[in-house]
Design a protein that fits this description.
With 233 residues, the protein is mostly helical. The chain has two domains: 14-80, Arc Repressor Mutant, subunit A (Orthogonal Bundle), CATH 1.10.10; 82-223, GntR ligand-binding domain-like (Four Helix Bundle (Hemerythrin (Met), subunit A)), CATH 1.20.120. The protein is built from nine helices and three strands. The chain has helices at residues 14-28, 39-46, 50-62, 80-105, 108-125, 133-153, 157-166, 180-199, 202-223, and strands spanning 36-37, 66-69, 73-76. A three-stranded antiparallel β-sheet has the order 1-3-2. Helix 1 packs across helix 3 and helix 4 crosses helix 6.
């Protein structure tokens, strides 16, 4: 890939867009773990100043993808992808338990809320093969609301706190929702989970939720499609 082709990022959220591209490059392995990220080269490639690049790197540090080190700058976190997988694995276990508890409660208001959420997602998705980043962000917000409604439905503050600690920033997974295949798969699993709440099948709710969270990390890995090269060193 050519290293001297600039990708001009125009718009009000330069740091966010730079962050998304850098994140995808890390998850794809294009930026190798332990390597230094050269801010000057990133800024030149993206055709923007160094300030939004620095902001993007700070955001990625909170996600556990980079380390900002004194006198060395930013490096790709050595355990970045493994840490993400560990988080999702732990979350699948805990959120499976959360779905089981919430399902046992059989709260009709929660069931109605989950059904409404699925309907809203379906409306946002439409028949579009791909959607804009803005619409993907809206769908991601609805996805987040679906899961958090179930957390709340457990009635357990402790469980909710653990899940919140494992959660990653919403922007981390926005790209999943840009592709129709991913959106459809997630919506179908949400609808299947809601069906277990309707039938009060708590064991099945736990099983489906745990599998759903694991599918999410698999989709995240396949959805990382940014192409950033020549920015290490």
């Amino acid at each position: 890939m050519s290293t001297d082709t600039k990708e001009n990022l125009q718009g009000p959220s330069l740091a966010d867009r730079a962050r998304d591209k850098l994140r995808a490059a890390i998850l794809e392995g294009e930026l190798k773990v332990g390597e230094k990220i050269n801010i000057e080269r990133v800024a030149q490639k993206f055709g923007i100043s160094r300030t939004p690049i620095r902001e993007a790197l700070k955001a990625l540090e909170t996600e556990g993808l980079v380390q900002l080190q004194p006198n060395r700058g930013a490096i790709v976190e050595p355990q970045a992808w493994q840490e993400i997988q560990h988080r999702y694995r732990m979350r699948s276990l805990l959120e499976g338990y959360a779905a089981e508890l919430a399902c046992k409660h059989g709260d009709p208001e929660l069931i109605a809320l989950l059904k409404q959420n699925c309907a809203q997602v379906k409306k946002q998705c439409g028949d579009h093969r791909t959607v804009s980043p803005a619409r993907a962000r809206k769908i991601a917000e609805l996805n987040r609301a679906f899961h958090r409604a179930i957390w709340s439905g457990t009635g357990s503050r402790t469980l909710t706190r653990f899940l919140e600690a494992l959660d990653l920033p919403q922007s981390f997974s926005d790209s999943i929702y840009e592709e129709k295949g991913s959106r459809d798969a997630i919506l179908q699993e949400h609808e299947a989970i809601v069906a277990t709440f309707v039938s009060r099948d708590a064991d099945r709710a736990r099983e489906l939720m745990a599998r759903h969270i694991q599918m999410s990390v698999d989709l995240l890995a396949s959805a990382a499609d940014g192409h950033v090269s020549g920015i290490c060193g």
